[in-house]
Amino acid sequence: MTVRNNEAIKKYGFFFLVFIFFGYLSINFPLTGDDLNWGITTLKNYFGSGQFLNYDGRYAGNSLIIIASHSAVFKVLSYAGITTLVVYLAAHLINNVRQLERNTLLILILMLTMSTELFAQVLGWNAGFFNYMASLVYPLIIINLVKYHYSDWQASKYLRYSILIAVLSIISCFFVEHVTLLNLAVATILMGYMLYQKKKNYLVIANFIGTYIGGILMFSNKAYLNILLHHDSYRETSFSLTKVYHIISQQMDFYLLIDNPIITVLLAVILGYLIIKNLQKRSGNKLGTVVSYLELSILIAFIEYHYILFNTFLKDFGHRYLVSCLLSILFLLVIVIEMAKLSLETHNIEYIALIAAAIVLIVPFFVVTPFGPRGAFASYFCLCLLVVALCNELNAVKFSLPIIRIMMVMVVIFYAGLATRIGHASRIKNDFITYQEKHNTPKDYRLYLEVPYNQYYWAVHPQATDSSYRGYYKIKTIGGKLVPYAKWRLIEKNTNSNAEMFSQVLKVDSQNK
């Protein structure tokens, strides 16, 4: 067997393990919130009744979650497949393709150590996953094609593939709105570049046509007109400096930066290294030296303020959110300045493009609200890629693959244990509900076994009064009581079967009346 074949087997084997890991997460994380609401409808009802015309333009994402809510096999395979594809495309996009495994592991570690709020609303919630994660697939595909195969698409033989690109680009606009806006921005920039070059490129043309058709189809949905006219009870559009300040100071900076200390500190350290390195090069440039010291001061102030002072010495400070807002803006400004300089020095647009994409993806939420943690995921993912790209540029991980592997193993063990407990509890909970329905006991209410670690999966309603859960599992009894996890787990350990455990839980409940 040749060396090349060995490398291919190793690469595909590695990504198969990634697929298995995310498949295991999907098997164990239950349907929650909107997953359950989508589970009581069908694609026929969604499209046939005209519901899709007035809900939103996320036709592809909504279709995927409807199918996933009805088919456990589809849910697991698509969840694992989409995540693996996103991670592979992201790792492949980073400049040093030869370090694919290292890049992949770093991306996985950064992605899986994001805040619990982000994790819960994207990886711990299927409706969030099939919109916010799945939406990243096409932008990553098109950027990879542009980066590695742009000149190939100038040949007429690639014309036949243009239809596929056009179709994919249309579908790519049917997930989440801010990623659709990014797709439109990328398509416009690529078209401008092609016109500047004065060389026909079938990839650019097909992507441009398809993306604009998809964008028009998405935003022509009546739901967006209702939002503009303030006829929507959940979403609204407005713009004011007060609103922007509130979003940045109390939501955006936390969801994207402050609640994610690992990536934030890594960025600060890498930026600090770049600034000090540049200071040593231009010791005679007084203005540049002053700017560099200001940038270093901002980085130090941002980290110290948010991770040392914010919730301790300054917790009663009346303007602490104002200071947080200013420091967050300055922190992002330092990133933009340093990435622009690095792109010019290395003749690599990758660095400034990633931070620009992160900003473009989050700016729409200045106008459209509400803004939740999941809205920051795409921007956070761009920051993950930026950190990995910078590590490659600085050779920061050249000799550290064994350490990275150990870190990845620790992350996998944590999430495997977490998923196992959540999955076991969720299945026992469902079996207990079936048991109570079958025996019609208790008469006036149902007991719901608590599923633990709810900070890692998105559940809108309390577990004992979840109307979506009752609707999905056709539970007619409205009343409910929650049995704490620690309590029912103790009973489970002291019984020999589920039936015996269920009987004991019901007995304890009747004794406590």
Tags for this model:
single chain; 513 residues; mainly alpha; two-stranded antiparallel sheet; two-stranded parallel sheet; 23 helices; 4 strands; 70% helix; 2% strand; globular
Give a verbal description of the structure.
This protein is mainly alpha-helical and 513 residues long. α4 (59-70) packs antiparallel against α8 and α14 crosses α17. The protein has 23 helices and four strands. The longest helix is centred in the last third of the chain and has 39 residues, at 401-439. The mean pLDDT is 92. Helix content is 70%, strand content 2%. The chain is globular, with a radius of gyration of 25 Å. α21 links the parallel β3 and β4 (480-483). The strands form two sheets. It has a two-stranded antiparallel ribbon. A two-stranded parallel sheet has the order 3-4. 38% of the residues are buried.
What's the SSE blueprint?
Layout: H1 3-28, H2 34-39, H3 43-48, H4 59-70, H5 72-93, H6 100-112, H7 116-122, H8 126-133, H9 137-149, H10 162-171, H11 177-197, H12 202-219, H13 222-228, E1 236-237, H14 241-258, H15 261-281, H16 286-309, H17 320-346, H18 350-362, E2 368-369, H19 377-393, H20 401-439, E3 446-449, H21 467-472, E4 480-483, H22 485-493, H23 498-511
Parallel strand pairs: 3-4
Antiparallel strand pairs: 1-2
Helix pairs in contact: 1-5, 1-20, 4-5, 4-8, 5-6, 5-8, 5-9, 6-19, 6-20, 10-12, 11-12, 11-18, 14-17, 15-16, 15-19, 16-17, 17-18, 18-19
